[in-house]
Design a protein that fits this description.
The protein has helices spanning about 1-10, 15-20, 70-85, 115-120, 160-165, 235-245, 280-290, 315-325, 355-360, 365-385, 395-405, and strands at about 30, 50-55, 60-65, 90-95, 105, 125, 130-135, 135-140, 145-150, 170, 175, 180-185, 195-200, 210, 215-220, 230-235, 245-250, 260-265, 295-300, 305, 310-315, 335-340, 345. It has about 400 residues and is of the alpha+beta class.
Length: about 400
């Protein structure tokens, strides 16, 4: 329980001494019994673990779980219920801001690079996971970060590496007991090794963690099929289609028991957290993007030149160059080519990135296999979107455009 307290103390926004003096009664109460199990013979109970939310009483009860993240995830679900009722859009996203005040949101599921890419030493970090978009702009819900640290190195991810110091909680890592040196390449416990630290441990964090309305939205996908382009510019309808779809691939290190990649769809890139229908959040996102002139991009941090096991994972250095081109505005004026099936707009060139890899087909030696895999992924998208096709996002015209924006 001390670990849970430490993790949440570093993840929540910490009140000042003055705020604590006038704290009063809590708005929400968490009862965490740790490994003490629930009664699995209770009606509808399927295991010795249960996490229960009572929105009327503003309480959460956790039984039979030693995972400290249950508290964070539970509160995030509460925010997904409360915020839209106030006209505020809750988002499962990372966020950073340039020195000129330009804000970018990074949507993505576990393993897509949300924390890594939002933590950029050339930009101010607003947050890595949970945000709200209101009439005043963007604000972080949390006061800390939760970074993967498998194969972490100072060269590849200096900001996260330097954030690991006294006060940081490391999970599932292996270290030498006497020198207390962590071997970040060791995955003998699990590939899902983590570091939880207060956001101020990032040297260029923006405190307080707020910013103006986003200029760019980046939807991250770790495509294990290797057919999505490294970057493509999205129309409004395409943005809504891919936001509602929430595609990525579960790969080793993102979910317990995952050894091979598996395509998955998580609505709004956070199906586990959202409390309302996904189209409610999509409609709010579309309205805000139109109002504030936000551009959107789809970035594949997954495989190139073949599916998982054949192709290669996209180099982080190339992805960072792509993100830089989005931020400096050069991609807005680029020449684009439209892809097959998904009708995505791919830039002809990105500074610092080999032009060949921008077109996924170029990287496949077997072109027939590429087309078969592309069509396979398209079928998965279509099948998933059947869950939403009868609902409306905004006006009827927009919904028709969204349905047409998917793979054909």
């Amino acid at each position: 329980m001390r670990l849970h307290f430490k993790v949440m103390g570093g993840r929540c926004i910490r009140p000042t001494p003055e705020e604590l003096e006038n704290f009063g009664s809590p708005d929400f109460t968490i009862y965490n019994a740790g490994q003490f199990p629930c009664n699995r013979y209770t009606h509808y109970m399927t295991s010795s673990t249960s996490i229960d939310l009572n929105l009327k009483r503003c309480e959460m009860v956790i039984l039979g779980s030693q995972y400290a993240g249950e508290m964070k995830k539970g509160l995030f679900s509460v925010m997904h219920y409360l915020m839209p009722k106030k006209g505020v859009l809750s988002l499962h996203s990372g966020c950073n801001m340039g020195k000129e005040g330009d804000v970018t949101l990074f949507f993505g599921l576990s393993g897509t690079g949300k924390t890594t890419l939002s933590t950029d030493h050339n930009r101010y970090l607003i947050g890595d996971d949970e945000h709200c978009w209101s009439a005043n702009g963007i604000s972080n819900i949390e006061g800390g970060c939760y970074a993967k640290c498998i194969d972490l190195s100072k060269d590849k991810e200096p900001d996260i590496f330097n954030a690991i110091k006294f006060g940081t909680v490391l999970e599932n890592v292996v270290f030498e007991e006497h020198p207390r040196e962590v071997d970040y390449s060791d995955k003998s416990v699990t590939e899902n090794t983590r570091a939880s630290y207060p956001i101020e441990y990032i040297s260029n964090a923006k405190i307080p963690c707020v910013g103006p309305h986003p200029r760019n939205i980046i939807l991250l996908a770790c495509d294990a099929f290797g057919v999505l382009p490294p970057v493509s510019k999205l129309t409004m309808a395409q943005t809504m289609y891919h936001f509602i779809s929430g595609y990525t691939a579960l790969v080793a290190g993102t979910e317990d028991g995952i050894k091979e990649p598996k395509a998955t769809f998580s609505a709004c890139f956070g199906a586990a957290f959202i409390m309302l229908h996904p189209t409610k959040y999509a409609a709010m996102l579309a309205e805000k993007m139109k109002k504030y002139g936000t551009s959107a991009w789809l970035v594949n941090t997954g495989w190139s030149g073949g599916s998982y096991g054949v192709g290669q994972r996209m180099k982080l250095s190339y992805t960072r160059k792509i993100i830089d081109a989005i931020h400096n505005g050069s991609l807005l004026n680029a020449n684009y080519t439209q892809t097959h099936i998904f009708s995505l707009q791919i830039p002809d060139e990105v500074e610092g990135v080999p032009a060949k890899i921008l077109q996924p087909e170029n990287m496949w030696s077997d072109k027939n296999a590429y087309m078969e895999t592309l069509q396979k992924l398209a079928k998965l998208f279509k099948s998933n979107f059947e869950n939403f096709s009868s609902y409306k996002v905004g006006d009827e015209k927009l919904m028709e455009e969204i349905l047409a924006a998917g793979p054909q």
